[in-house]
Amino acid sequence: MDTHLVNLNRKVAQYKEVLQNTENYRAAWNDELKETIINKLQELINVTGLGAKLETKGDMENLQAIVISLGESKSGMYQKLGDDIKRHLIKHNGSLIYQQLFNGKVIVMIQYPYIENYGEPNPPKTIAIYRPEELRDPYFVRHMEEFVQEITKWEDYDDDEPNKKIGFNFNFQNTEEG
């Protein structure tokens, strides 16, 4: 057999294996992984008293997500629209997300808190991507620890991190011609 065909056949076999893995990963999500993630996260929410709610997003088959959300609240800032009228800026308090990828693997991400109409939200932080069999009990605690650490850093923002763009000069650009 021609050497080129040996390489091609190897690549075709690898491709077929990847496609089968996708089917296996999706089946694992539906058979047990989704419920395991929900149970582990709910247990951590209960034990820590974090005050979060667990949501499942399932509009797209095989692209489902499980989200620990800290919800929304008034930011404490508001826009004065008149003497007696105020428009509060809403703060989204952050989320920890476990989402199926197109290939059946699970991505774990942190959605940072942000305040509507105040700067740009930080892009989500990817913690890791896992095959279903890789997602073990100790990881859930580590993910929650990193989530709480990241949102705490966001809430306690100061000038120790000079690359962050938040504040008056960033959000309220000078519009005067000069």
What does this molecule look like?
- A hairpin with a 7-residue loop joins strand 1 (about 55) and strand 2 (about 65-70).
- The protein has 3 helices and 8 strands; from the N terminus they run H-E-E-E-E-E-E-E-E-H-H.
- The protein is an alpha+beta fold and about 180 residues long.
- The chain has helices spanning about 5-50, 135-155, 170; strands spanning about 55, 65-70, 70-80, 85-90, 95-100, 105-110, 115, 125-130.
Task: Sum up the structure in keywords.
single chain; about 180 residues; alpha+beta; 3 helices; about 40% helix; about 25% strand; elongated; disordered C terminus
Give the SSE layout.
Layout: H1 3-48, E1 53-57, E2 65-69, E3 72-80, E4 86-92, E5 95-100, E6 106-111, E7 114-115, E8 125-130, H2 137-155, H3 168-171
Antiparallel strand pairs: 1-2, 2-5, 3-4, 4-7, 5-6, 6-8
